[in-house]
Amino acid sequence: MTKEQIQDFSLAHAEPAWLADLRQAAFDQIDRLELPTIERVKFHRWNLGDGSLAENEAPGPVPDFTALDDNPKLVQVGSHTVLEQLPADLVEQGVVFTDLYSALELIPDVIEKYFGTVIKYDENKMTAYNAAYFNATAVLYIPDNVIVNQPVEGLYYQDATSSAPFNKRVLIIAGKNSQVNYLERFESFGEGGLETSANITVEVVALAGSQVKFSAIDRLGKHVTTFMNRRGRLASDASIDWALGIMNQGNVVADFDSDLMGTGSHANLKVVALSSGRQVQGIDSRVTNYGPHSVGHILQHGVILERGTLTFNGIGHIIRGAKGADAQQESRVLMLSDKARSDANPILLIDENEVTAGHAASIGQVDPEDMYYLMSRGLDRATAERLVIRGFLGSVITEIPVKEVRDEMIQVIEDTLTKRDYDKD
Hints:
Low-confidence stretches: none
Order of helices and strands: HHEEHEHHHEEEEEEEEEEEEEEEEHHH
Number of strands: 19
Strand content: 35-45%
Strand order of the largest sheet: 2-1-5-7-9-11-13-15-17-19
Largest sheet: 10 strands, mixed
Distance between the termini: 43 Å
Helix content: 10-25%
């Protein structure tokens, strides 16, 4: 695309000048910037975007939402919103959960202040690409001192019948001393599966004293090559508890980061990943302690089937001045095939004294004695392996705060294992 075409897109959507300028600046940087570095993952030849700003057509039949309860909810298919649900009491308190353009009408100053502040457009080629080409958006805003007792759900569907790139941008702003439990799903639906790409940016602004519980299940289809970037920026005494299930079927590179800017800020990141077929997944999980007495913990467990590849890079960085900081990480991978490939790379960067830091990493296969014991009790191989996997991932899944999300994640794992092709092992 040309700058003029991007400008036309901005004009067609009545984007404010600052947003249109950001798109133009990002477009100028795309060819000048390098791809992000994901250690030990070769993804430079992947289809990570064709340089188009097309929006998908209005969806036809969409997933059935009649079974959904009355909690706050936003459902989107590609660039189209098909359901908004926000109780009147939250609207009266100033809560906003809608697409970006509607949010710009309601809280324009808030959007301008925080949009693009967590993930800068000029960090690398992929962040610039998203800022220039995003075509689907969502904004969740919780004002100061507002406590949302119900889980807030964002369901973002990629239409498998559309070849339009799935370039999504989500902005979450948790005001001072606010509390919110946010559930996020990225999922493909529809027959077919036209080859396409997804570039997804999720920014979480956690202001002083706020508490954010962030749970997600990613289930994009085999036809989607995905770059996923989730990052939180935490002020003093703010906390984000991340619980992420990476269950996509296509190739994925992901960057999950927490910037602990304020004194006493706290990020707890839990990741479960499942790789199968010939799928390649590379996941960077990083916590950077800027603030004194900040705490950042990473827990990652993954399972690989068949010829899948899974790489966990855990990065803990304590910046000079962050006295009393704590950075801990654990990455463990279970391989169920001799043809599977995996890496678990712990990285600690310590620039300050009087801190606490540690890491653990392991890669292994199912213990033959465990399998022998279970099968000697009458279980077939598939059932025995499912039990072993459930036990291996259970230490992470049980940490997810919402029962419905735990149950859904377990069901996804069960479905994947049930479809497993032992002949490919």
